[in-house]
Predict the structure.
Amino acid sequence: LAYLQQVAGAADHLGYEGVLIPTGRSCEDPWVIAASLIGATRQLKFLVAVRPGLHQPSLAARMAATFDRLSGGRVLVNLVTGGDQAELEGDGVYLDHASRYEQSAEFIRIWREILARSHDGQSYDFEGKHLSVKGAKLLYPPVQTPYPPVWFGGSSAAAHDLAAEQVDAYLTWGEPPAEVAKKIADVRARAEKQGRRVEFGIRLHVIVRETSEAAWR
């Protein structure tokens, strides 16, 4: 914990906007880790995963609102739809690719509506193929309005549709520039048809050594 606080404090001091907390069975739980770092930082935001099939949307909404209130509006939400098949099955998730995206679309719609309606004390009903809620309500709204920003990545057509319809920032891996350009153009065009605007981010890994030769080696 002391080491994580040191890293988070350094990122905060250096002026980084936020940090991605990794998720999966090879990692510590991201919500517990992020919460443990609120007091060690002042401005730093935390991009924390919600995982349809593991979380329920109403619980995930309460978690996000609680974190947002405790941190003064410093939570970002990373919608994670897929992952390693063996890991998914180990977590009790057996849906195929198409069904996972259907479930994720329902999940994030419910999540967004619960949080957005919490500012006016409203409840929300939804009946879908995979998820349903009746009278879902959040008594303590988040600081950010209407809800903490949602980040998401995926390369399939279903992923691009989900990004265009519901998320705030679309993420891509560090792929060849021409391929990244195609993905951004496609998501942007799909979002425009929905009357929405999506921001974009790219995830790259930087290898740092004392010299260029050592870095390449």
In short: The helical segments are 2-13, 30-36, 57-71, 85-90, 97-118, 157-166, 177-193, 212-216. The longest strand covers residues 45-50. DSSP finds eight helices and eight strands in the chain.
